[in-house]
Amino acid sequence: MWNRPVLMNGVANALFAAAALLVLVGAWKLAAHQPLFELREVTVGGALAHVTRGEIEDVVRRELRGNFLTLDLAAVNAAFQQLPWVRKVSVRRQWPGRLDVVLEEHVPLARWGAGALVNTEGGVFRATYRGELPQFVGPEGAAREMAIQYRYFRKSLEAIGQTPVRLEVSPRRAWKVRLASGVTLALGREQMEARFARFVAMHDRALAPLGPRVEYVDLRYANGFAVRLAEPRRGKAAPKRGPKAGQRAG
Questions:
Q1: Is there a contact between 114 and 124 (Cβ–Cβ < 8 Å)?
Q2: What is the pLDDT of residues 4-44, one digit of tens each?
Q3: Going by C-beta distance under 8 Å and a sequence separation of 6 or more, which residues neighbour residue 150?
Q4: 3-state secondary structure of 201
Q5: What residues contact 58, with CB distance under 8 A and at least 6 apart?
Q6: Chosen CATH of 37-105 out of 3.10.20.310, 3.60.15.10, 3.40.50.1970, 3.30.420.150
Q7: How big is the CA angle at 221 (ends 211 and 232), to the nearest 5 degrees?
Q8: Are 242 and 227 contacting, i.e. CB atoms less than 8 angstroms apart?
Q9: Which residues of 173-184 are buried (b: 16+ CB within 10 A; e: fewer)?
Q10: Sign, CA torsion 93/38/76/127
Q11: Edge-first strand listing for the sheet containing 41-45
């Protein structure tokens, strides 16, 4: 080995690099504990309507360990992400001793199952909300599609002064929409938007004259729809059919 200068030079260079690395690590540890690098300020921003000051202070006390240089940003991010109403977190250092945290909250769109909510992006999260929201009922993984369809239904119903309050999707992907007026629309699995548009187009002419007696509209027909009326106090009303009622589709 001693007669191989190339190998000796390589070993010497490796030892020098290791020694330099140890010096740098030592210098880093020494500098990191200097008062100059203390974390002096934490700012938390964002349009916050549901995240409380107490929740924020709890995360700060529990997770902000170390100083400006040694603070684990990933751990801080993950801790804020665990708050029920937090959808997105941004954390960054600001020299010389400040940590900036920006929180983005979920915007609730509907209720999902027992105790969960759906945000405007179609994501499901768990939080307490006492306001009025429509109800989504469907299989796991359907929330995003339901959020998209809900916006379409809501916008379309504005033309006739109606509002959707409940969306249902069966495991076989058959859709139902319940309106604030109490009417339930059966849309089936195919051509949902075309069937829904047919209901909106015919509402004022064929359904509005029947008043609040309408409780169920079956739109699963090729060229029309069937209407079920609420039972009168005496006797039972026969089902009414819309114009051009044809063979029911799926």
A1: no
A2: 555 455 544 544 444 434 434 443 444 445 455 688 899 99
A3: 109, 110, 134, 136, 164, 167
A4: helix
A5: none
A6: 3.10.20.310
A7: 30
A8: yes
A9: ebbbbbbeeebb
A10: negative
A11: 41-45, 98-105, 86-94
pLDDT digits (tens, 9 = 90+) for 50-94: 999 999 999 999 988 888 888 899 999 999 999 999 999 999 999
Longest dimension (CA), the chain: 115
Q: 108-241 belongs to which CATH class?
A: alpha beta
Give strand ranges (E) for 95-157. 98-105, 108-112, 116-119, 124-126, 135-137
Q: In terms of residues, how long is the chain?
A: 250
Which pTM was predicted?
A: 0.77
